[in-house]
Amino acid sequence: MSQPVQRAASQSLISKYINKETLKYVFTTHFWGPVSNFGIPIAAIYDLKKDPEMISGPMTLALVMYSGVFMRYSLAVTPRNFLLFGCHVVNETAQLVQGYRYLNHHYLGGKKADATDANVAKTA
Fold it and tell me: Which segments cross the bilayer (predicted)?
């Protein structure tokens, strides 16, 4: 491609995606609220690798309810905030997995199975 054609293509791309409406959106809480909120699901996904003994059942339940409420809220406001909705879908999923791990470990025999596996590994 020649230099003028490249410049025209990049100018077209920039004018299409970087305009007043986009900049106005980026400088609102409709954008920065969900972006800053993504720390919660990222931490929850990271915690999926940790020992189930460290999971707090009440906190996990609170975060499941929190994300459920805000998923509904993100679609009830005008304009709809799909970025916030996506953030809470990811968090809801991660927290439900954490809740399953908690229940399995504490109430469904996961703790006993872990102890049995540890004893078998010691004798082997």
Answer: 55-75
Rounded to 10 degrees, what is the CA torsion of 78, 84, 89, 94?
-160
Residue 116 and residue 111: Cα distance in Å, rounded? 9
Q: What distance in Å separates the CA atoms of residue 76 and residue 85, rounded to the nearest whole number?
A: 10
Q: pLDDT of 69-96, one tens digit each?
A: 999 999 999 889 999 999 999 999 999 9
Q: CB under 8 Å to 38, separation ≥6 — which residues?
A: 87, 90
Assess whether pLDDT exceeds 60 at residue 1: no
d(CA 83, CA 93): 16
